[in-house]
Amino acid sequence: MSGSLGRTPESLKASGRSSEKLSLPILQGKIKRDPDGYETELQLIYKQFKASVDLFQQQAALSFSSVGSDPSVAKDLGDRAMFLAHVTPFYPKQLAEFPSQLTDLLRTSCLAMPSGLRNHVAQALILLMNRKSLVIEDLLALFLDVQCIGDRNLRKLAFSHIVQTIRKMSVTDPRHKGLQKIVISMLEQEDETKAKRALVTLCELLKKKVWLGDRHERVAIAICEACFHASPRIMVSSLRFLLDYENIEDEDDSDASDNDDDEDSKPENHVVINREAVYKANNKGTSSSKKKKQAKLQRAMKSIKKKQRASSESTTSTYSPLNHLNDPQKFAEKLLSRLQTGKSIGKTSERIETRLMMMKVIARTIGLHKLQLLSFYTYLQNYAKPHEKDVTQILAAAVQACHDGVPSDAVKPLFMQIVNQFVHDRSRPEAIAVGLNVIREMCLRIPELMTEELLQDLALYKKEHEKAISAGARSLIALFREINPSLLVKKDRGRPGGPVAKPKQFGEANVFSNVPNVELLQESDHESDSDDGDQDDDDMELPGSDDVDQEELVPDDCGNEDEAEEDSDDDTNNTEDDSDVDTSIAGDEEEDMNDSDEAETDSENEEMESEEDDDDDDGEASDSSAEDSGSKEKANGKKRKMVDFDANLLSADTSLRALKRFAEAKSEQPSLDENDGILSNEDFRKIKDLQAKKEAKLALARKGFKVPDSDQLSKKRVNPAKLEAHIRHKLTKEQRMELVKAGREDRVKYQSRTATKQKKVGGSSNKQKEHKKNMPLAAIRSKAGRSKRSKKIKKSSSGTQFRGRKAWK
């Protein structure tokens, strides 16, 4: 061949090859340094490559067995392909057809190639694409087809290349749509192997957050539609991905947070706890009370941190591919019909694991989109039994499918079946605990399910000795203390604090007419304005406001002495406010103060006399005490009005002036509505801080839990493990051995005391030295005397001891 090209041995030697074989790596380095000087050698190798390809294809067509058995043919073809792929950027015109020829070779003769040659050709194609000689659109379909051959190394290489290439593309690259169309079209094919590789590619790119969001919603829809594929394996893979996506999301977030720096990983949110509460928890009270306060403080901090972490998470934390369904109602109905057909025919077309996954996907779709699929609750009644396999996951699906948009009549049969099947005296403790937890979660979403009699019966389980059962009953009681305490017995309602909660009616919803928690910002602004007014001018406060607050806080059945003290305080407060408001009437105010002081002394003397009379009356006749006290309160009230008439008249006059000034000052301040209602970033940040302070105060003051919003409940996935809280499962032997070995980790190897003494380094201890000291003479004599006396006593007692009658006497 060299003669045909007109090459001499000297030129062959200069090019870095002998007459027998060309040295490709050396020639490749020289071509990169001087491409124009080695164009003839390139054409020679290119013709050799074409000849090798033709020979290989002819032998593959004739199905020669020598093709796969002779490794030299495949090795030479692979080496020439890699050499040409490396030098293609230097000869774009001469090697313009080489990428398409190599692509056709892999497409047509892939099955006939040995594994090594396939990998070499695939690597050459990847190299060409990295050198911009090929584009991803030309290789995507080919690499997806190549993954179906069965070559593990080639499948791994092609799959990683596809994922990495698409991952490096820009988010706004218009080529994404074309690539998605190729992969989705392959997913819709009936060929199970190709559809499986396409599904794996879509799931991996969605998992890596490459094809994620509204821009790439067709990917999520395609994965959801794969649940209806003709192949059971594709259906199961799609169902499993939809269910495990949130777990994958959590793992990725945790790994990312571990890899990041400490400064970047720290959230901006901070826990706001009152300093007074921290001081009391550490410095006030006894040691036991300090421990209780510190534990309460820790619980409050944990709850606040958890809430702040949940609020600071991005929207992808609750993301699911099911969010992008165009018609979720149709999707759920279609999946339920496929689930029911296998059961109604009588054939077990789907295994119990597959049916369980279908139930969970349907329940997740119902919860996310708040659908009404009433036949699903009827279907779940067939599986809501304690002896069913994986019954906890079935019950978690039932809880997930409950939301405030479902009528309670549709869920009532399923709810009562759970109550009757799980919670009764002959049921196992584990089943009772799971049943109580499920009842609590269902009532959290639909409170209308619970009746008064049933709740009172379930509340009696709080006295059970099993911790799981008592904890479940107490959590149920705590829930209804928050949502509907009227159903509980009086002793279970807890301390009455605040207004009595009432459950929402069916279809009732909270509609925000303003920015949430914006009232906290307005209150803080008013408080800051009032503080500034106190420093500058005290005229900003209303003089009668303190009086109103005091009258509201004082109960109706208070004594006369308290009323008189309040009257005197009111008089002094009024006169002080009058002096602050206007200094032109100082003389009149002094007279009013003198009158009020005289009125206070008169009222105190009268109260002392009335108390003495009350004591005498109580000693004589206790039945008439109530009537006398009522008449005296009325009389004192009339006297107080007459005495304080002038002071009240003056305070009313001054309060009108202060009210007018307060209204003028308030009108000068721009309100939120007048300021076009637009909040800045500082306002939102301030609202967030005020909300954190408010939640901290509530967490410290509240005993119980806050009922979450219905939207939060629908977005959050129900964990079946939480339904088995506090249940102690029986450990296997391997688990017990692991616990034993874990307890022995910090333990020192066992040795006798003498062995440890012998291994001791250094001198003897003080205890050992005391044993070696000589005893004083008096101690020796006393010890000898004690020993003599003990021996004498032992000898005397042994002679008179009865040892039993001899048998021969």
TrEMBL record:
Q: List each copy of the SDA1 C-terminal domain by range.
A: 762-807
Listed InterPro entries: ARM-type_fold, Sda1, SDA1_C, SDA1_N
* One GO BP annotation of this record: protein transport
Kindly report the protein's main subcellular placement as a broad class. nucleus
The annotated regions of Acidic residues compositional bias extend over 251-265, 526-621
Entry superkingdom: Eukaryota
Would I find Protein transport among this entry's keywords? yes
Domain SDA1 N-terminal per the UniProt entry, residue ranges? 83-464
Look up keyword Nucleus and say if it applies. yes
Q: What does this protein do?
A: Required for 60S pre-ribosomal subunits export to the cytoplasm.
Write down what this protein is called. Answer: Protein SDA1
Protein species of origin: Brassica oleracea var. oleracea
